[in-house]
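Q: Convert this sequence to structure tokens.
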Amino acid sequence: MTTLTNALQALATHCQQAATTSALTFHRGVEREALRVDRSEGHISHKPHPKALGSALTHSSITTDYSESLMEFITQVHPSVEGVIKELDDIHNVVNHELYKQDECLWPASMPCYLAGNEDVPIAYFGESNTGKLKRTYREGLSNRYGRIMQCIAGMHYNFSFDQDFWSFLESYKGKTALSQAEKQAFQSDSYFALIRNFRRSSWMLSLLFGASPAIDESFLPKKPNSLEKLENHTWFGSKATSLRMSDLGYQNKAQADLYVCYNEVDTYISTVKKALQTPYQRYQDIGVKVDGLYRQLNSNLLQIENEYYSDIRPKRVTQPGEHPSAALQARGVEYIEVRIMDLDPSSSIGMQSSTLYFIDVFLLYCMLRGDERLGSAECNQLRKMQQEIASHGRDLDMNFDFGQGPVKLRDKAENMLDALTEVADFLSTKTGNPAYQQAVEVQKEKLTNEALLPSALLLERSKTEQGYQSAMLALSKEQQANWMACPLSDELTHEFMEKAERSLREQEAIEAADEVDFDTFLKGYLTPQ
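A:
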């Protein structure tokens, strides 16, 4: 009997004895990024963030990411997938009605629209407070280090945590009884790190099944890589690619290539990240920090701040004002994890399907219960290499990939994992009475028998049919916005978001008025190690 089967049986017993399935209640929230583009040509918007949508610095639901034109929609934490989807629907409905007024729409895909060059991408503006200037300066640093075009890539981030009753089960199952509060915190953090290690061993599956970026507009790269083919009308594509966003053509960061972040213990993870924050990097030193009175970056170290470290999953803890993420983790432990590997689903007007979120829930429970083996540097490097290969060639299901134990046919590996995920999904559907878990896995199984159903295949087919990536995605943008415009805003929803916008603008004004030191002094204090 496998570790996974044993754990599921023990979890079933716990639910039966407790006479509740609260241990199977998952808490999740979503962040969806999307470029604003003009509706006529599908070019990136140069207009400021719409004032009617409030302050990008303080709005609870609608903000910007790297670019002023890269919108980000953030849901609250929900105990149901349906709650997340409903909130995303509301946000998108409000935003689309507002963008329609200024002849703009949302780009539906992860890889950006046509970009005329680095300067075509406006960096996000967050006002004149020290906090706003910090965000702006960090983005200036990203521009000078990596270029702005790469920062226009969009994705979906899935924030996930287990219910307290699940932790009661896991403590008992692992023989951890009568724990102090500090011991409970350490156990929860260690368990989340075990999940992260198993996620890294298995996240290739998410690229295979949900990758939706096999093509790019040729303006994304200065010249065509040998690994890509040319499609008419300025499109380059990988014939078997699933997610160029997650390949070495996407989030490129050569400086971080040799940065080995350990996921075996919380303390070593934090110390590794902190070391990168304090390690000077010659190329960044050559850029300069403050030149002729203007900041080019926050500092010249390998990382300006912790969020600059690119990873497909992160351990997280809600921070207090002015607190660094690692300080929050060190003080109060891991609270939730953030899955960052997911491409946007272009076929969905909110960037994702509810069945996808159910599948991720199944996947993360599988990662939590399948074991807690440590990760060595050799395995880490092999996993990184294999992840890149599947992002670039994963639609060749009969190709052999090395997952660390020698070459294996991708189809066989995927089918075996789906069998294990089916066991988890059957358990969840049976115990909760919700068939959506089983249905979500069945939808993915169909993709292995009919590869044309893979999102990467669907996007590539549409790009071929509509004479290129740019025209295909613009047409899709318009279709989706037309559907939103046919969905009238209720007075209640309009009033709710108007109040949110007005409140956020007042909050930004208050933050700006409260500053007591100049930016140089503020930045020095912020960058002081915590």
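The mean pLDDT is 95.
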